[in-house]
Amino acid sequence: MAVDAAGSRARHTARWCRGTDAQGRTPWTRGRVLAALAVLSAALLVFHSAVPNAVGRLGSALEAFLPWLGLAVPVLLASALVRRSLTALVAVLLPAAAWAALFGGLLLPADGGAHDITAVQHNVSDENPDPTGTARALARSAPDLIALEELTPSALASYEAALAAEYPYHAVEGTVGLWSRHPLTGVRRVDIRPAGIGEGWDRGLRCGVRTPRGEIAVYVAHLPSVRFRATGFGSGPRDESARLLGAALAAEELERVILLGDLNSTVDDRGLAPVTSRMRAPRRGLALSWPAALPVARIDQILTRSATAAEIRTLPATGSDHLPVAARIRLDAS
């Protein structure tokens, strides 16, 4: 019986490979459109930087959601099977391999080795109905550093009171703040305000943190939001703010740096290149953080210099429209 079943499968496969349709097309000559779409998907994944940004910032729009191009693989694979196209099946290997090379490593198990710092990053939302509960939820994961954005004057006292016992050191500039278990030094505002935005827009903060492994620089930043408009991907102010932040990071005298912030895009977006070219992203973890109800992108970032974030993960939802993200960080020798 087993031999008959194996033989039946072999004969079915042979007929599948040899079969022709009503137009006389074979599995190697049909499905060319599907094959072309597979090649296009692979090209967009590998050569996304070649997509121009001159019109509507199409390149940045693509890169902001680049991992989702991987959805083309199962769709094209299913279509190739339905069409019984060997050409399309072979072509689907291209985007599958490209996606695996770019993002497959993020899905691997996290490095379980020793770490020096645990950091949490969270845009708490200026409409958060429960700041006290949010603060307690973040502290429950026992990080060393907690960075918050969209702090409002009315909610700030709640965060300070809820975090005071475990995090005796904190600094706030405008709507961003840092809470730490370790002493802070050299606290100053970082000017990342784009042209055209009025005074009082303070979303950048720099602190020195005296850890048991020596002093590190920690930046907290909240870049401007982007918008999809009729003219395209509206990222101009965000890009300008990223250039200012990148300049501040370049001028930082301490070698070991941690950046915590809502950068309003993914690390693949070329608009963040002034920042991401100077910092390292975590090696493991997708950690999609926005929107909290159905996350499609990680726009909340934990980036490092002369340090390694072994993995990044999301924490349970709070009263914000973002999910918190956390990372274990290993500092390089000073």
From TrEMBL:
<feature type="transmembrane region" description="Helical">
    <location>
        <begin position="33"/>
        <end position="52"/>
    </location>
</feature>
<feature type="domain" description="Endonuclease/exonuclease/phosphatase">
    <location>
        <begin position="121"/>
        <end position="322"/>
    </location>
</feature>
<feature type="transmembrane region" description="Helical">
    <location>
        <begin position="89"/>
        <end position="108"/>
    </location>
</feature>
<protein>
    <recommendedName>
        <fullName>Endonuclease/exonuclease/phosphatase domain-containing protein</fullName>
    </recommendedName>
</protein>
<dbReference type="InterPro" id="IPR036691">
    <property type="entry name" value="Endo/exonu/phosph_ase_sf"/>
</dbReference>
<keyword id="KW-1133">Transmembrane helix</keyword>
<keyword id="KW-0812">Transmembrane</keyword>
<dbReference type="InterPro" id="IPR005135">
    <property type="entry name" value="Endo/exonuclease/phosphatase"/>
</dbReference>
<dbReference type="Pfam" id="PF03372">
    <property type="entry name" value="Exo_endo_phos"/>
</dbReference>
<feature type="transmembrane region" description="Helical">
    <location>
        <begin position="64"/>
        <end position="82"/>
    </location>
</feature>
<keyword id="KW-0472">Membrane</keyword>
